[in-house]
Amino acid sequence: MLVYLIREFKPQDLQQVIEIANESLTERYFPQLFLDIYEAWPRGFLVAEFHEILGFIAGSKLSNEARVLMLAVRKEHRRRGIGSALLRKFMAICKSEGLVSIRLEVRTSNITAIEFYKRFGFNIISFIPNYYTNGDAAYVMWRMI
Ligand SMILES: CC(C)(COP(=O)(O)OP(=O)(O)OC[C@H]1O[C@@H](n2cnc3c(N)ncnc32)[C@H](O)[C@@H]1OP(=O)(O)O)[C@@H](O)C(=O)NCCC(=O)NCCS
User: What CATH superfamily is the domain 5-104?
Assistant: First the structure.
C-alpha cells in the first residue's frame, strides 16, 4: 500500500506540480499562475506526496462557492485512490470554510474525469462551447457540499 501524505502546496513544489500538469492536462499554464492560485487561497491548493509529489488539486473560491481549477495525478500512480483522497480533503476544507457548493469545468471528451467526478456526486449542469484554447467544449459539473 502506498502511504502518501496530503498537505498544502509550498512554492518549492512548483517544478514538480508543473511537470504533473504538463503530462496530464492539455492546457498550458504560466508558472506564475500556480503561485497566484496558491496565494489567493493557500488552503485550497493541496498535493499528495510520497518521496515526490504524486498529484495535486488547485482551487479557488468566490462568495460561498469553490471551484476546482486543476486536478491531476502522475500517470503511473493513477487508479490508486490518490485523486479521490485529494478531492475528499479539498471538500473537507471547503466545508470547514463554510462554502456550500463546488463547481468545475471538464473537457467533454475527458470521460475518465467525468466518471471520476460523477462518482463524487457531481452533476453536469451546463455546456460551454469553445471553452478551451484548442476550441474544445467543456461541461460544467457542480455539487452541493
Ligand atoms: C482524473 C484523475 C485525477 C483521477 O485520479 P486517480 O487518482 O486516478 O483517481 P482514483 O484512483 O481516486 O479513482 C477514483 C474513481 O474514479 C473513477 N475513475 C478513475 N479513473 C478512471 C478511468 N480511467 N476510467 C473510468 N473511471 C475512472 C473510478 O470510479 C475510480 O474508482 P475505482 O478505481 O475504485 O473504480 C486522473 O485520472 C488524472 O490525473 N487525469 C488526467 C488529468 C485530468 O483529466 N484531470 C481532471 C480534469 S480537471
Answer: Gcn5-related N-acetyltransferase (GNAT) (3.40.630.30)
